[in-house]
Structures are given as C-alpha cells and as structure tokens.
Structures
1.
Amino acid sequence: MKKNDKSVRAVIELKITPQRKTGFGKIASKVSRYAQVDACFLMSGAYDLLVFVSGSSLQDVAEFVSSELSTIEGVLSTATHFMLKTYKASGEYAFEEDKRLPVV
C-alpha cells in the first residue's frame, strides 16, 4: 500500500521504560522503523513517546498497535486517539465554511 492510500490516522501515546545506557532512544528507534509510523517524538508529561500512525482502516491501526507496538519489550502502555476530522494541518486550514443553518 502506498503512503498516500492510508486514510486513517491516529496518535498513539506510549509509556515506556528507559533502557540502560540508551534511555528512550532504543525503543524510539525501533518504533520509528515501522512503515505505519509517520512520526515519533519524545515528550514530557504523562507519557514518553507520541507516535503518529497511518493505516487503511480503524481495524488496521488497532491491529498494528495491539500486535506490534504494545508487544515491544519496554512498552508499558499505549493510548490510541483516532483523528476524525482535520481543521488545520501544516499551516493550512482544511475545512469549508460551516453549512449548517444558524441557531436563532
């Protein structure tokens, strides 16, 4: 499947255990190598990695998370958030005027 054929996008939060001598880098490098992963960031806060993923369907992304990401040694938990609608991306607005009737 080509990258532009992937229509479902998700953001996955990963809580991971830092590895001796490599910190978060070893796991982040492994996560980043998957074709489904568009971007991977080390974050501050409640989780460690923020991963942007693309797939052909909700089930495709869910299967990737459950069979690949969550089974990596050192991954403690995942939280998946599906992107439902884009309003702005890469500095560009991505929505049309609101066509609903006004509330009076």
2.
Amino acid sequence: MVHAPSLQETLRSALEQTPTYAPASGDRLAAVLAPLVETPEPSLIFTVRSDTLSRHAGEVSFPGGLVDEGESLADAARREAFEEIGLDPTLPRLVGALPPVHTYVSAILVVPFVGLLHLPPDLFPAEAEIKEVLRVPLARLATHEEPMKLPRADGSMWHGWSYPLEGHTVWGATGLMVHSFLDILRAEAPWTLN
C-alpha cells in the first residue's frame, strides 16, 4: 500500500520552516497568519479591515501585524490572529512560511505563515479593527484568480493578482500571498483545489 501524505506533511516539505528576515532600512517587519480550514472544504480565512483604520482601510487581508521587539515571527502571527479575530493561538498548526511580501505603500516586510485548522473555529472579531471575517474555499480562489496591474506614483507598474469575491476583492500584498500559496498547492496538493 502506498502512503498518501497528509496536507500537513505536504505543506511542511513545501514551505519554509525557519524563516528569518530583516526589513530593509526604513521598513518594518510584520507577520500574518493564513488560517487554512481543512474540512469540510479546504478554505482560507480572511479579514475585512475596518473602514476607520488609517492604513489599508476596508481591504481584505490575513490577520496579522507588526512584530513586537523580542517576539518571533510565528508568535507575532499567532498573537495578531488572536487580537484581531479571537483565534485561539493553540489551535492553528503552523506548517511553514510563504515567501515574504514587501508592501509598497506602508513600507513593511510581511512574512506569511500558514496555519492548519482541522475544523472551522469559533471567531470573535475585534470590532475596532475588523469589519468582517470571510472564509473562502481554495477552489473558488483558484478559479477566480486574475492578473492585475496598477500604475505607481513613481511611474513604475505594480504587477500582482486579484481574486474577486462577492462584494470584496483580495489583491495587493494579500493577493501576492494567495497566488504564492495557490502555486504551491497546484504543484504539491492539487486535490485541495477541486
């Protein structure tokens, strides 16, 4: 009998296990958690940021934020997910990190961690920061993926990915993270996208 690897095993071998990054001069370091609910249908949990926030208001993102002094990247991702959506920090099984993404507008180097959740968790969004929590099936993200280009103030062009959903669009840094993750899943775990 051939052993079929679990999603956890597959992602652990495909993702970076000990990410250590330093932001460029003038940039800050942040970590986010991409919570992946395995059953009943593989889906990612996103937040819709409050319209009253000073940065990225109303945008769809993963829970996360700046790393506190002396805090590990993984601990920052867990802490921020707890603060923003009330996700019990002991629940997600961190299976590794995706490539970091630099945010052009806010000068932050963001390290995204994937955390597996066996079942949909009870969540309690922080009203001051989070307007809504979304759970989006991986298959839907994969079928709605579109390349995106935007002109920058300096005359250059930003290239990324967008994921139109009902009433929302995942794009920007989060869109780059989703694309990176979907590419890994297409190569290593295509069954999650069906």
3.
Amino acid sequence: MTNTGKKTQATPAKAAPAAGKTAKAPEAKKAKPAGSAFAKPLQPSKELAAVVGSDPLPRTEVVSKVWHYIKKHKLQNEANKREILADDKLAAVFGKSKVTMFEMNKFLAQHLK
C-alpha cells in the first residue's frame, strides 16, 4: 500500500512544475517580438499597397501577403517554381516582368519605409 501512496505523491509533483512552465511561456513570448526589427510595422509604397493594403505591416507579414497574392493569381512559372511572372500590380513593384523568389525581397525592401 505504500507504493500506491508514492505514486499519488509523485504525480502531483510532476504536474505542478509543468503547469508553472506553461503559465510563464506566454509572458516571455510577448516581450521578444518587441525588439525584433522584422516585427516593426513599415508603411508600404503606393505600388505595394495595391497588393498588400495601405496599413503599416511588419516585413514578415508583407512577404506573406505577397506570396498569398502570387499563389492566388497563379503567378509562379509552372516550369520553374522559383520564378515569379509579374502581373501589372507586381510589375509596378518589381520594375520588370520576371523575378526569382530570391530577388523578390530586394524589390519589396525598396517599397517599405
């Protein structure tokens, strides 16, 4: 019968620290993004606002919205998925009709202030 008592005592002891860890985790996450340069909202240019909206957005959100636009309008080259075939709105941002996914961030940076 003493074994049953030990199991009962051990189980709450393990559960208590786990509950304490989960309670502290959200507080730590809230403090971290505030210092990140990627989390700073930036104002898109008029050309970029036609794709992502005119509200200030973090750089990461801008890239995400541009990719959503590319996929929604099927602007990736089927033969080479790394290549983006710009429509009129994206051509105004990129300055040319084709860019690679690696070049895209360079052009987006020019349209964020």
4.
Amino acid sequence: MPRLSVWFVRASFIYLVLGLFFGALILMEKGFALYALIWNLLPFHMEFLLIGWLIQLAMGVAFWIIPRFSRGASRGPENLVWFSFAFLNAGILLTSTQLWFPSMLIIGRIAEVIAWILYIIGSWKRIKPHGVE
C-alpha cells in the first residue's frame, strides 16, 4: 500500500473513532439528559463520520487500487494528492467548528472541494480501460 493511502486510511480510522465517540455521547445525552451542551458535538459527529471516515477511506483505497502507470511515476503527480489530503483534513476540522465560528463552514467546504478537485486531477489519467497505456 502506498504511503499516501496509509495516511488516508489511518486518518479515516481516527475520524471513525472520534465520530463514534461523539455519537455515543450525544446518544447518552438523549437518553439521560446529563448535559445539554453535548448536542454541540453534532457537527463534529456528522463531519467526522461522513467526510472524515467515509470519504477519506474511499479516497485512500481508490488511490491504492486505481491502476498504475507502467512508465515514469507509477501513480502520477502524487504531490497533488498529498495537497488533497492536507486540504481535506483542514476542511474537516474547519467545518466542524461551524457552531462557534459560522464563517468556518464556508471556508472548510471550500477547502474540501479544493481537496476533491486536486484528487481528481491527480488521479484522472490513471483511470483507463484495461490494457491501454
């Protein structure tokens, strides 16, 4: 597995654990009404599980599985995908703070979209029919 895929997958597992933890706290609050401000964790819970875990895991596995080039750099311009990893994680963290800093929602979403565009550009040429160089 390429190092970049390892980073994507490990980061996704961290978001999975955190997202499930926040979800468990919210569920506990729903059942026992201990501390109402726990509901403020909902944006973290949703962002960490949907984008942090699910999307990031898919991106990491796809980077690993998409066919490699037979000549030159086997995975193409990896720098773009590294930037994609950085923008995606920055976007996740910025978006999750939307409750306290509403403008961070837009900035975080823009960072996530930039991440996805960089990922697509970095992977586009590797998507081809079997046997085509």
